[in-house]
Records
---
Amino acid sequence: MITANRLTRRFGDRVVVDDVSFEVGRSEIVALLGPNGAGKTTILRMLGGLITPTSGSVVVDGVQLTRATGAMLRSRIGFLPEVPGLWDRLTVRENLAVYADLYKLQAADRILDWLLDLLELTAHQAARAAELSKGMRQKVAIARSLLHDPHVLLLDEPTSGLDPGIARAVRRLLYDRRSQGCTILVSTHNLDEAERLADRVAVVQGRLIAIDTPAGLRRRLTPGRIVVRVAGLASACLSAVRPFDGSAVVDGQLLTLRLPDPERDTPALVRAVVEAGAEILEVRPEAAALEDVYLHLLADERVSEAEER
Amino acid sequence: MTGLHVAALLRKELLDLSRNRGALLPVAIMALVSLLLPFGVTLAIPAVTGQHLGDDSDLLRVSAAVGAHAELTRDGRVQLFLFQQFLMLFLITPITGAMALAAHSIVGEKQARTLEPLLATPIGTIELLVAKVLGSLIPSLAIAMAGLALYFTGLACFAEPGVVRAMVTPRTALLVFLVSPAAALLSLQSAIVVSSRVNDARTAQQFGVLIIIPLTAVLVAQFAGMIWLSARAFAMVGLGMLALWVLLTVVSAALFERDTILTNWR
């Protein structure tokens, strides 16, 4: 488990990360989502003990990250930087072997064999890093971050620039780590990636704007809105739903309306539609696209920043 | 500090260097010059010109610094003096040659963006710096020592009888095994310190080679007969430089700001 407590980081007069607090639990994947320059990498670096926060603290597995505990906690964290950072003149296996030694791994050869096999790198283990494609380099860097079986994984854009096949393999690997109890924080500016991968999404723009499940975030933009799909034209039952929402909208088979309390009002709505003679095919909360929510949240943030100034 | 972390990174440094042998060329060239120059000046030129070194009264006067050595001829005494002086060149060899390696070590990691994953491991700053210094020192020193072995072999083969035996003294041993590595360590550590603060290997190199200035001054002063450093003086200089190196290592760890290195380098 990893906790960010009111993390703030300034570079000179510029506040890059401002009072960010959140927690990522065991067996959970959280995606840090934000535009370029939103402070995602800085947050990851602070959590990984690479740079110190101007204020605030980081707690890993109940231990506060300090100068004294830094080395011990870094041995529990797997960190994937934005750039793979491989030693070009060393082979894939040699690159990993150096890190295995730095983590003082017992049975390093067996672990290397397993990881190389897992990431389908065995055939390339004798190739020098300089000869690898971008995707291969990223896979080696991911293997490096997993070498010491870390409790916490901090991954900066893990699938950035990867072809879809490799990106899917990486996602599977992360699901697997999650099922084994690993705490995973992934930074991305790719909405699709965040939605596919994460249990929760933290939207950052210097500050933490929102943190919720992808579905929860989507509902924020459309609170209480319900979509009813019926057999035939929905206009036939429009009069039946008017008492619930006078501005209900019809579009072919779809009926969209806002309920003051969806939990309480949905059964009554269903009864009213059925009594109006319609056959209901589907009732669901209207969910905005995550992209819309994200852009809406960022726009709101810009407005509040402007107001503060 | 754990030796395992240093050993792991040192292995990487040596492996990397073994794939980039061109980086060792300056050390090899410097060792070759240190080897050829003394034999050229002391043996080849007199042989070509037909002049004996022992006939030069000035050389005889300054060569008295190495002691009476009644067992040697006049030529032998001058040769002993000159070969002792040129021994100092082997002190400069590992410094000049390894400077490129050391200066490049941190800057190179910054440029290749390999420092960030390294700093994310449990390795400590001092461990990182020690491994970097040793990674530059060991190969350079090995080449310098190989050059020295050839130097003494050449002396045994071509110098006046008794010269090589007269060369093997505690003073020589201290120069070779204490002062030379200590000077190299001090110089390399300076280069590493600067290397971690700048973005350009050449800047680090220029700072590192500053140590050559006092060493060259000692070399020239000894040639001119102005001073003659005894074994005791070499021991003190060597130990002093080692102490300075330890101090510099601590200072460099304090100056090595992970934040700055990671955030100011793009």
---
Amino acid sequence: MDRIVQALVEIVGTPYVSDSAEERYFYGRDPGLMPAHAPDYVVLPRSVEEIQAIVRLAGREKIALVPMGAGMSLSGLVIPQRGGIVLDMKRMDRILKVNEAARYVVVEGGTSTGKLHAHLNRYYPRLRFSTPDSPAAATVAANVMIHGQGRLTQQQGFNSDMVSGLEVVLPSGELCRIGSCALSDDWFSKGPPLPDLSGLFLGWFGATGILTKVGIKLYPRKKMRDVEIFITDSPDFVPGILYELTHTEMAEDINIFAQPLPLIFSGNHHIVIYFTGDSAEEMELKKRILFHALDGFIRNKDGGFMTVGEGMKKTLLDMPQRSATTFADVTKGGGFEYSGPIVPIDRYPGCSRKLDELAVKYDLKYHATARIIDKGHAMMFAFSFTFNRADEDMLNRTRMALSEASEYALSIGGLFWKPTLDEQRIALEKMDPQTARLMKRIKEELDPQGIMNPGNWEGI
Amino acid sequence: MYQLKFDEKRCLGCPDGACLVQCQYLNFEADPARKEMVKIFRGEDSPVLQDCVTCYACEEYCKRGNHPFYLINERREDKGILTAPRAITRQWIHIGEPKGKYELGKIGKIALSFGFMPQLKEITRGRLFEDVMPSYFFGQEFFCNVVYIHFADTKVFKERLPVVIENIHKLGVEEVIFLHDECYAAFTSLAPAYGMEVPFKSVHYFEYLYNRLTALKDRIKPLNVKVVYQRPCSNRLCGDSHLFVQKIMDRIGATLVQRTYQDETALCCGSIFRAMYGYDLMADVQGRNLEDMAQSGAEYCIFNCHGCMNALSPLVAARGMTPLHMIDLCRMAIGEKPEGGQ
């Protein structure tokens, strides 16, 4: 038996270690377009102590170590670029604590968003978290690690802004708690009023440590939830519409979609407005305020509220939404990927027109979606394309379109969201050199051997 | 291109200006009303062209055979006066675009038209329809396109309606039972008003239901329920069919409760108002209508149009009434279980 396999078996037990070709194939890719690269070993720990032992082993042996949630970023963030060990967190999926009064939950690093969603539904019907629209297998830790967004992002910011504490195994194997939980068993704050150290880990994609526990804030779950769609025929009106809607502070979530198919959606931009309440009166009040916020656009005939039938309403109110799955099969062959930069909301018209241009240039089916972040401070604009995985030419055209979309986003002041390795390199080259040097010092200080998810946030 | 047949002399000799005097959304006395319609006919500016909310009721109020609403519509289009936001109009034009995805049953000499309302396929079941089903057609190829008169866009139906007529004609049907007012009105009101020939007989489903209930009268167990009826905007284009509402209720033993907003004073469901004008007009009209329904003490609110049903069902249910389509109410009367209750 391989020496490393033997060592891993001693830590986690035989069933949870593999170096077989089948496992290495599976763990060497994600559903996106990034090139595959197989790991040498796969390991599934069950405890913090096991993770610490694995990290120390990797350090001793100078083997790359890639922590992995569900592997659904689509941008290759857990593809082991230099082989080594993929550390699959899925066995660490316990929900450790819910503090109902202080509204937070603490979960293990491999807990799926679906499991947390179901747990709260069953035991805490008055609480919710910011459910992302990724498949339910996506983990809470990975979602905050990539600065994911969810159903409360319009109100509360990135899902990572809702973190209330972290437990991290450092590249040295030491265990470290971040936030109020460093002083007590209360997980109500990830930093303030202390220095906020969560930034040493969030957004680093595991290159500075492994999240073994995550505290996230919970929020009131209202009894009723509804959705309206305001449509306009020009992207130029969208920023103004969003400004008025966010000013009301009445919306739970605000998304936008625009797509040429089916024909009913062609040529219009659909601003999907969710709102919640505990009574019919509260719902009606919020609806009235939201409608009135857009009276000027309606009067000028620049937009109006469309009729949302029962079937469409049901689809939209689903959490997580499954429409991306449907979209992925518009072009037969099941491929779907997007470039989703974070941009100021006034860049919507430019992004929309760029997407139209790219779809024509590369002859691809497309779909624009956007999610408003933190009452309009920014938005995630997704340049989404669907492709046939068996069509190499189409795959190349999609890669080129995505690359061009990312370049465009950067040129208009946007930031890459869950950037590929190439995008990370471009971002590091563009950013203030002193900032890039600070990032490099942080990385070298925490991971001097460069074993943690190598390739990520390097290239400086 | 087809031209609207409109006789100015009928307006000049009109004794009461009923089209605008009776309007529930505009405020005109008889003499100014008459003059306003003549101005509109002559292509002059009129506040009516800005303020009409497209409830269609003036088509019914005019007893002199003119088409006041169709005329308003023509002039709005001539002057580029939009009723709806551009995006809403665009969306509706796309909805009705033929896509080659129509559906045909086993077509006989008599056929049911589902227009483009899939819900109708679900409720046209049981003994009421056994003598005609499965002879039906469905899809944009058979969609009447009358809805565009809400949007002052006559070009769409002028282009599409003759094609739809031809599509139906090609099926070889002699008689079509229309399950939606707009479709029935397309062939009995709009097409004749524009000089389009219709080579088949059009029957409103209310008349069909009444005749079937008469044929099945031995099966009817009087419902002994109190109901209100939500009259849709498009029924104003085919007022002859409205007479069957009371006749059907009498036949099935349901009491059509008297209320303020019924028959000629019926109020719109608000669905089109929300899309075109926003919250206030919709809320005002829906609020008055629902309060009137609730005050009547009715147990059921009976719908004719699924658009109205979609807009009002939750609101009706919240006030303790059961929303039900007319067809389902009739099926209940002959001991069948409704399909479309909410």
